[in-house]
Amino acid sequence: MADILHVVAAVIVRNGCVLACRRNLNLSAGGLWEFPGGKVEPGESPSEALAREVREELDVDVEIGELIHRGMTPVGAVGVDLSSYAVRLTDAVPTASTDHDRLRWLKREELNSVEWAQPDRPVVDVLAHWKEAG
Questions:
Q1: Residue 49 to residues 6, 53, 130: CA-CA distances in angstroms?
Q2: Angstrom distances, CA of residue 117 to CA of 21, 73, 111, 112
Q3: Which residues pair with 88 in a beta bridge?
Q4: Closest by alpha carbon to 10, among 123, 129, 130?
């Protein structure tokens, strides 16, 4: 793996459910589910990147909490270094996304009912036992 892509993801829990987002079909990994987030740009901290990405994708502001999981997943010739954080909504609840065609609030026992993008799968496994996820 020559290239490493540093990515952050938001695990947003509300009323015991976790927000899952399905990638638009015209994007890479289209049709697969993921936690909202994106690339860490040069000069950004992971928290800054995550707050920016959530604002851009979901048009909501959030408070970044603890790191839940960090893992490296090979996707083609690229290594995706994904850091997933507990995130709390500070204002509105998202109703649409720029990168996703569907948003769903899933109970912990429903997390495996959708097909997750490869880098997000380890996070789903961690959430099965995570104290904040329900």
A1: 10, 6, 23
A2: 10, 10, 12, 12
A3: 63
A4: 123
Q: Which residues contact 17 (CB under 8 A, 6 or more apart)?
A: 105, 106, 107, 134
Query: For each of the chain's 134 residues, which pLDDT tens digit applies?
Result: 569 999 999 999 999 999 999 999 887 778 999 999 999 999 999 999 999 999 999 999 999 999 999 999 998 888 999 999 999 999 899 999 999 999 999 999 999 999 999 999 999 999 987 765 44
Q: What is the DSSP string of 18-55?
A: EEEEEEPTTSTTTT-EE-SEEEPPTT--HHHHHHHHHH
Geometric angle at alpha carbon 9, from 134 and 97, rounded to 5°: 95
Interatomic CA distance for residues 23 and 34, integer angstroms: 7
